[in-house]
Amino acid sequence: MSVKLLAENAKKASIILSGISTQQKNDALRMIAEALYSNKDKIFKANSEDIEQSMAENLAMPLIKRLRFDEKKLTGVIEGIKSLINLEDPVGKILLSTELDEGLELFRVSCPIGLIGIIFESRPDALVQISTLCLKSGNAVMLKGGSEAFLTNKCLYEIIASATKEAGLPANWINLLENRDEISELLKLDEYVDLIIPRGSNEFVRYIMDNSRIPVLGHADGICHCYIDKDAEIPMAIDITVDSKTQYVAVCNALETLLVHEGIAPEILPRLKEALEKKNVELRGCEKTRKIISCIPATEEDWKTEYLDYILSIKVVESIDEAIEHINTYGSGHTDTIVSKNKSSIEKFLEYVDSANVFANCSTRFSDGFRYGFGAEVGISTNKIHARGPVGLDGLVTYKYKLIGNGNIVADYEENRRRFTHRPIKM
Question: Which domain holds residue 329?
């Protein structure tokens, strides 16, 4: 079947899906969770074959780690589905209610976006998170995963499609594209596809934006920073830095650049070096950093680089203002954190760092839809319009205006026979 026909059928399915009940959506989610668990051996076998093929092709180890779908990942996605079931349905919320005149009432009501195309990286667990979020928010979806996870993605897709068909959902609400050429076709289908969410490299996201008239939501890079203020607690700063960098290096919310105030640098940098080298992190430092600890010289390019690997660039700064300026110059607007006991410094950092997620005294790794209580996420957006930060259910709905009258006509108001009241309606 052509991509155009898939999209046409999916668009029709999205109309049906937009009107189904919360109960029916939650029942379908429960059936997905049960089907994933009962088919886990089939999933693990497909994933093992994907990993074996990727290792034969010398895929980088951090990417192999992202590709792995084991018992832990399965437990995680099932917990995410259960969390999603317990969340309020984002569709059908009354966001505004106004009496325009007696008997003429205006309502702004949340509704699904429609048909969403999502192109994502090698993490097959993302397929489950994305599709279940789309289901709960009433959107149909067209998915394209990385070729390295082809067998795992296909297996997961088939399980989800089968479970939701049994639950009574329209058959074409979920679709899986299987080759790279289909992406180019998808990008031309603005007649059917309402939104594209790409998850991948900066170059890839730019390609999507430059080659489609469909609105694009997402982020290109995750160049995340931690700024250690002169008033930081050193043990806390070390723990946060190590967790931000090494808890999972191959993700967009992992730390890439560490900024250290010159007033605390001589005391903390040697201890940081010791802690990070125990985790096999390669350090690249500015000139001031290298006067305190031995490490590879950092270049201008390092400040612009998302490593997704055991590499960390370090810069010593004279003030919090220099740290904020560095982040706003080189950061990608994803996630940045400050470690400090100084309330004024914390408030200044949170106010002036222009990122989707700005933290104080905690790891950058917390910027995640599941950890925020969103159930999961389709990705993290660094856009400033519509959705920003982890995109969960609320980021997958828009709204429509519903106006309910009783034979009202505009001529009555233009010719002053009637007047608008514009009074809020108490719900």
Answer: 224-366
Residue 285 belongs to some domain of the structure? yes
CB distance 138 to 393 below 8 Å: no
What are the residue ranges of helices labelled H in 291-410? 320-330, 343-352
Contact in structure between 163 and 32 (CB atoms under 8 Å): yes
Task: Give me the residue label for tokens 């999507």.
Answer: 208
Q: Across the strands, what pairs with 315?
A: 259
Q: How far is residue 197's CA from residue 204's CA, in Å, rounded to a whole number?
A: 12
| pLDDT tens series, the chain, 427 aa | 799 999 999 999 999 999 999 999 999 999 999 999 999 999 999 999 999 999 998 888 877 888 999 999 999 999 999 999 999 999 999 999 999 999 999 999 999 999 999 998 778 998 999 999 999 999 999 999 988 999 999 999 999 999 999 999 998 999 999 888 899 999 999 999 999 988 776 677 878 888 999 999 877 678 999 999 999 999 999 999 999 999 989 888 999 999 999 999 999 999 999 999 999 999 999 999 999 999 999 999 999 999 989 999 999 999 999 999 999 999 999 999 999 999 999 999 999 999 999 999 999 999 998 899 887 788 788 888 788 888 889 999 999 999 999 999 999 999 999 999 999 998 7
Beta-carbon contacts of residue 2 (< 8 Å; ≥ 6 apart): 185
Structure tokens of 96? Answer: 């505004």
341-344: list long-range contacts, CB under 8 Å, 24+ apart.
Answer: 341/231, 341/232, 341/233, 342/229, 342/231
C-alpha separations of 279 from 104, 105, 225, 403 in Å: 65, 62, 19, 60
β-strand partners of 6: none
CATH number of domain containing 113: 3.40.605.10
Q: Is residue 427 one of the residues assigned to a domain? A: no
Q: Is the pTM of this model over 0.85?
A: no
Question: Nearest CA to 119 among 151, 152, 141?
Answer: 141
Q: Could you tell me if 112 and 396 are in contact, meaning their C-beta atoms sit under 8 angstroms apart?
A: yes
Strand order in the sheet with 195-198: 174-176, 140-144, 115-119, 195-198
Question: Are 84 and 138 found together in one domain?
Answer: yes
Q: What is the number of structural domains in the chain?
A: 2
Strand 311-317, strand 397-404: pairing: unpaired
